[in-house]
Amino acid sequence: MKEFHAERSALWTIMLTVCLAAAGLIAAAGAVLDRWPNVMWGAIVVVGVIAAIPAFCVLPLYFRMLSCTVTSSSITVTAGILFRRAQSVRFERVQFVQIVSGPFDGTLGLNFVVLHLYGGHLTVPFLSRDDREAFAALLQQKGVFHAP
Q1: Rg of the Cα atoms in the chain
Q2: How far apart, in whole angstroms, are the C-alpha atoms of residue 103 and residue 23?
Q3: Which of 19, 86, 113, 145 could form an SS bridge with 139, CB 3.0 to 4.6 Å?
Q4: Of the CATH numbers 2.60.120.260, 2.30.29.30, 3.40.50.2300, 3.30.390.10, which one belongs to the domain with range 1-148?
């Protein structure tokens, strides 16, 4: 049995993206609403709080709870904060495997493995490069995935 967890660099990448988007919205609110300082500061506080709660509370909890367990016969992906969801699939049900990675997959941790199944799909998100390669090796060992 092998267990995989979400890569922390992906968490920092998403948190930075949320903060930069919030900073852009705050700058736009400051530029557009400069005639009405009370409305401007209210909009800045609202945007800041709306960005801070997911970035610093929800995302770290989600990443801590996200895991993938590979046993001798099945793959189980578990996620969720308040409501835990576990999706499990047997190796026999996998039709094909899609590995998604970007140009900065080693530094950002934005690697995904999508298992296409009979009747749906199962996504294993935010793997590190090493975990992605180990996961692909496990799938090859089971005869599910054939790397070029």
Answers
A1: 20
A2: 26
A3: 145
A4: 2.30.29.30
